[in-house]
Structures are given as C-alpha cells and as structure tokens.
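Retry 2 of 3 after timeout on previous attempt. Resubmitting structure tokens to design endpoint.
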C-alpha cells in the first residue's frame, strides 16, 4: 500500500516501509472516477482446497518486500468445529503463490482470527487483525488486535499478551453504533499518525447480528484509538445494504479512495464498491465497481477487496470470489477508455459496422423499450436515438437506464436533402 503524496511529506511504499520525501515512487495517476477494472486482466491467483485448513479463503493482503510478494489471508476448514486461521504465502510475480502456511492459529472450535492488515516499519511487521471472541452486550463479539513479527511469519500466540487487543466494541453504543463485532481493520500511517477504517455490525438483539457498516478511528501509535465515528453507512434495500472490508488509498492530491465489499442486507449478491473523499470520513460518488457477472456466468460472489499498487505504479484489486469454491482473484485497475460511440447507421460513413469499444462479458439485458416500428438505433454522448416510423416520433433514451430523455415528431424525408 502506498500513500502517493505529491506534496512530498512521507511515503509508505509497496514493501510497507516508510521512506523520506526524496524516495522515487513510480505511479500511474488517475482521477478516482476514471478507475475501472480492466476485465481482460482478471486472473485467479489462489484456490481453496477440498480438505484441510484452507477449504475457504478470503481477506487477501499483499506486500512487496525484499524482492518477494507476500500475502497474508484468512483460511478456514468446514464444517464445525471450524479451524479459522491467518495464513501466509509468497510469490515472485504476484499471481503464482507458494510456501502456504498457517501463521496465526487459534485452534479448532469457537475461537477465530481473520482480516489481516500489515505495515512494515523499522524492520518490524505490524499486523492488525480481528480475533474472536469476547463477551459484549450479552453476546460473543470480535475485536481488533495488534501483534508484531520480525519476519512476517512467526507471530505471537493467539490471545497471548503480545496478541494485543487495541480496539474493542466494549463500552461502545449499540445496537447501531460500534458496540458489537469490530472487524476488518484497514490502517494508514502518515505524519499525522495512524488512521483505521473498520467494519462494525448492528446488534438488534442477542444472538442476532445486523448488517455491517464502516467506521473510522485515529491513533498516535497504532495502539490507543480514539475519535471513533461512522464513516461509510450501509444503504438499506440496495446493493450496499451490508458493507465491510474497507481498503483505503490516499491519492496523490491528498484525497482518499475506498474500495469495499457490499451486498444486500441479507448478504446476497456480494460485489465491490468504490467511493471518494476529501477527508477520509465522508464519502461521495459511491459506485458499484465490480459485480460477479462482470467476471463470468459461474461467479456468484465477489468480496473482500484489497487495493495494491505495485512497484511499477500499476494498480490492482485482489479479492475473494466464489464459483462453486472460494478463490482469490486479481484484476488491474486503469483509466476508463474513451467510448467509441455508434453515431450513425452501421457506425460510420464507410458503414463498417465496427466499434473499438469492448462488449460485455455476459449476455444480460439491461433494459427494453417498446414502440411501433423502428429504424436502427444510433448511440452518442450517453444517449440512444431511435426513430419509430409507425408513431412518427424520434426518441432519446438514457443509454444506461433506458429512461426517456426527450421525444420529437419525426420529420418527413426530403428528396435530395
């Protein structure tokens, strides 16, 4: 993760180290709203196994360090008694991973650990993560812990004194504050200190966890956290009815971009969203960035995103997805290419019938519009224009929604004009 600060104060490079302002960092600078997944770059980087401790995998965190890509991720066995652990793997290219091993192990049963976030500072790896469990408001709840390692592989024992609880729901407000189930830490460190975004569940009643939302806190040392406040609320009855797994980037102009997992309130149809902010607290331009159908007809879920900027400046999303088994994928992020509209019959004056814009990966009808008799549509500047001969009317429709923008009587044809 890299804070790309053109004002030149401090950098956290792809290897997690903090460098002085003179350290060069290659970077492709895009406006946030231009960032889109380049779907042709989608690749599977890891698959779960049918037996053992990694029958389910998610929560990828990637660091480039000492010539290697290093990943920490959540893995679990199924069914109960679960074995829910934080695992580690290495790669020379960021796509093919080996040396898989458990690095933080609570053992079988009700205990669990998940959602690792690692920063390397002064040669020490610091991992914020969620441990389960503690007793809060008459129920079992997760909390966020911090532990250190000299090599990123050997970590303190689960729930030991050095697996230190740093952010808990204990004493906080419920049912809709941050008084239950704090999980999914995302941490940035710059000259102002540490900032954490984390997920919190509603707690409408004992034994029932509600939808998640994303909160924010600050710290001078990564241990003592304050200024806890709601940052990204869920939106009931929408694709953002349940949101968690924040991955936040501080952009070159000082603004922030957040990538997050989103689903309907009941948890169905998980996808990945993106939003932008000037202060890292309030977010605008919330966009559904990546849907399961974008990646293939057999993929039913995408979630748990992690933004990674490589040493060459290219930006990627690592994420979990499901196509019958859980897997980890990666897709490159890039600038939105210009649209090659279809402004006349068969596209152009030569009637080539060819556009350089890419077609969708799946055959899904976005909208329909019915009228009597029609000529071939043309598309330009975000509108679809159709002349309906039987009704002698020309319509302009929104290219995304199919909603009517305007209509006008179709003039008669003129000989030679």
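Retry 2 succeeded. Sequence:
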């Amino acid at each position: 993760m890299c804070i790309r600060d053109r004002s030149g104060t401090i950098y956290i490079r792809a290897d997690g180290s903090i460098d002085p302002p003179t350290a060069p960092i290659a970077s492709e600078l895009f406006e946030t709203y231009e960032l889109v997944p380049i779907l042709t770059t989608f690749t599977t980087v890891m698959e779960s196994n049918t037996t053992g401790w990694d029958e389910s995998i998610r929560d990828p965190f990637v660091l480039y360090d000492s010539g290697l890509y290093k990943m920490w991720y959540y893995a679990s066995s199924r069914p109960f008694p679960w074995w829910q652990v934080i695992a580690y793997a290495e790669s020379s290219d960021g796509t093919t991973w080996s040396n898989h091993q458990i690095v933080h192990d609570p053992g079988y049963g009700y205990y669990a650990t998940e959602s690792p976030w690692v920063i390397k500072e002064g040669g020490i790896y610091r991992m914020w993560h969620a441990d389960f469990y503690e007793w809060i408001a008459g129920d079992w709840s997760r909390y966020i812990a911090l532990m250190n390692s000299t090599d990123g592989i050997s970590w303190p024992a689960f729930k030991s004194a050095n697996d230190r609880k740093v952010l808990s729901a204990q004493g906080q407000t419920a049912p809709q504050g941050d008084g239950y189930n704090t999980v999914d830490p995302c941490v940035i460190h710059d000259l102002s200190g540490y900032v954490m975004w984390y997920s919190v569940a509603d707690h409408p009643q004992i034994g029932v966890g509600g939808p998640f939302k994303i909160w924010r806190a600050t710290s001078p040392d990564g241990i003592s956290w304050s200024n806890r406040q709601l940052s990204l609320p869920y939106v009931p009855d929408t694709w953002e009815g349940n949101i968690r797994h924040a991955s936040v980037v501080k952009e070159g102009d000082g603004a922030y971009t957040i990538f997050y997992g989103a689903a309907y309130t009941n948890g169905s149809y998980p996808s990945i969203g993106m939003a932008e902010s000037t202060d890292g607290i309030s977010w605008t331009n919330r966009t559904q960035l990546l849907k399961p159908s974008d990646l293939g007809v057999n993929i039913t879920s995408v979630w748990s995103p992690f933004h990674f900027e490589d040493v060459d400046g290219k930006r990627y999303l690592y994420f979990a997805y499901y196509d019958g088994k859980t897997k980890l994928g990666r897709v490159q992020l890039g600038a939105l290419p210009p649209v090659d509209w279809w402004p006349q019959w068969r596209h152009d004056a030569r009637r080539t019938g060819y556009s350089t814009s890419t077609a969708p990966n799946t055959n899904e009808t976005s909208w329909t519009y019915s009228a009597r008799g029609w000529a071939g549509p043309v598309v330009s500047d975000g509108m679809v224009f159709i002349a309906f001969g039987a009704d002698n009317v020309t319509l302009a429709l929104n290219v995304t929604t199919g909603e009517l923008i305007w209509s006008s009587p179709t003039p008669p044809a003129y000989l030679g004009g």
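Attempt log closed. The first helix runs from residue 292 to 295.
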